[in-house]
Design goal:
There is one protein chain. This protein has a two-stranded antiparallel ribbon with strand order 1-2. By secondary structure, the chain is mainly alpha-helical. The radius of gyration is 20 Å and the shape is globular.
Length: 340
C-alpha cells in the first residue's frame, strides 16, 4: 500500500509539473505581443537579444509568472496547514479573514509610510510582509479566541467568526484607502481585489526569504497535521505538545499568507481548493498533500492570471476576481456536501 501511495504521489507530481510547464509556456508566449518559444530561449540565454523581447520577457511576463507561482505555492500550502490545524475542510486563509487582516496591516503601512518610503523602494517592499504578518496574526488570534469553545475549536464558530472578522478588516482597509490620495487609492483598491499586474523582481526578492524559512518548517512538521486529526487526549498521551505545535504551524502559515498578500493583495480560495483536490489525488498523508497543494496553487494562479490579463484585453481583471469566480461555486459545493 505504501508503494502504491508513493507511485500515485510521483505520478500526480509529474502530471501537475507538466501542466505548470504548459501554463508557463502559454503565458510567456501569448498576449498582446506574441513571442515564439525559440525567441524566448534566445532572449533568456542572451543569444542575439533584442530590446523589445528583453522588455516583454524580463520586465513584464517573467516576473509576473514567477510571482503568480510563488503566491499560489504559498497560499496552497498555507491552506493545507490551516485545514489540518482546525480539522475544518472549509477553512481557508481568505475565508477565515487572515488575508484581510494581513491586507489591512499592509494598507495601513502604505498609508502612513507612503511619503517617507517610496512604494517601489527595496526597504518598503521588504517591510510589507512583516506588517502583513502582524496583521495576519492579530486576525488569527481574534478568530481563534472567538471560535474556542469547551477547550477546542468549534468549526461552525470558526467559519462564522472568520467571515465576520474578514469583513471587518476589509471595511477597515477600504476606509484607510479612501483617506489616501486619488492615485494611491486607485492602486490600493486594485491591490485589495487581488492582482499581480505590477509584478517586478524586487517583489520576488521580498517573498523568497519567507518561502525558504517557513516551508521547510511546515514540511518537517507535516506528520503532526496527520496526528491532529486524532482526539487531543490521544495526542497528549503520545507526548505531543499540541498547543505549542499548533501555534508554530499557525505562525508559519500566517507568515506565508502575509508574504503572498504583500505582493498580490487579497487572493482567496486557493487555500480552500488546493487541499481538497490534493487529498483526492494522493490521499490523506500531509507529507504528500503539502507539496501537491503547493503545485496545484502554482497552476491555479498562473492559469487564472493568464485568463485575467487576456480575456478582456486590453482591459485587465484582477486575478483575485477570476479565482473567486471559480472558488465561490466550489465553496458552496463543499458547504452543501458537508451538510449532507
Amino acid at each position: 500500500m505504501h508503494k502504491a501511495d508513493r507511485r500515485r504521489y510521483i505520478t500526480t507530481l509529474l502530471l501537475i509539473s507538466v501542466s505548470i510547464l504548459v501554463a508557463i509556456y502559454i503565458s510567456i508566449t501569448n498576449g498582446s505581443f506574441d513571442i515564439t518559444v525559440s525567441n524566448v530561449f534566445r532572449t533568456i540565454l542572451r543569444i542575439n537579444p533584442t530590446e523589445d523581447y528583453d522588455l516583454v520577457i524580463f520586465d513584464f511576463r517573467l516576473p509576473r509568472i514567477v510571482i503568480a507561482g510563488l503566491v499560489g505555492f504559498g497560499l496552497g500550502i498555507a491552506g493545507a496547514v490551516i485545514q489540518g490545524i482546525t480539522r475544518n475542510g472549509l477553512a481557508d486563509p481568505g475565508i477565515l479573514g487572515i488575508n484581510a487582516g494581513a491586507g489591512a496591516a499592509i494598507v495601513l503601512f502604505m498609508f502612513f509610510f507612503k511619503d517617507k518610503i517610496t512604494d517601489t523602494g527595496l526597504l518598503a517592499i521588504m517591510m510589507q510582509p512583516l506588517f502583513g504578518l502582524i496583521g495576519g496574526l492579530i486576525a488569527a488570534t481574534i478568530i481563534f479566541l472567538f471560535a474556542w469553545k469547551n477547550g477546542k475549536l468549534d468549526s461552525q464558530r470558526l467559519l462564522l467568526t472568520g467571515i465576520a472578522i474578514g469583513s471587518g478588516f476589509g471595511a477597515f482597509s477600504l476606509y484607510i484607502s479612501l483617506k489616501m490620495k486619488a492615485s494611491d487609492f486607485e492602486m490600493a483598491s486594485v491591490w485589495i481585489s487581488g492582482t499581480i499586474y505590477n509584478a517586478n523582481w524586487i517583489y520576488i526578492l521580498s517573498m523568497i526569504p519567507w518561502i525558504i524559512l517557513f516551508i521547510p518548517i511546515i514540511y518537517k512538521k507535516a506528520y503532526l497535521l496527520d496526528l491532529f486529526q486524532l482526539e487531543e487526549s490521544n495526542l497528549k498521551s503520545l507526548g505531543v505538545s499540541v498547543e505549542k505545535e499548533k501555534i508554530l504551524l499557525l505562525i508559519s502559515s500566517v507568515a506565508l499568507v502575509s508574504a503572498c498578500v504583500s505582493v498580490s493583495g487579497s487572493i482567496g480560495f486557493v487555500g480552500l481548493m488546493a487541499p481538497h483536490i490534493a487529498r483526492r489525488l494522493v490521499g490523506l498523508q500531509h507529507r504528500y498533500v503539502i507539496p501537491i497543494c503547493g503545485l496545484l496553487g502554482v497552476l491555479l494562479v498562473i492559469v487564472s492570471d493568464f485568463i485575467a490579463k487576456t480575456v478582456f484585453a486590453p482591459a485587465e481583471l484582477p486575478v483575485g476576481i477570476v479565482i473567486s469566480i471559480i472558488g465561490v461555486p466550489y465553496f458552496l459545493y463543499l458547504l452543501v456536501k458537508t451538510k449532507t
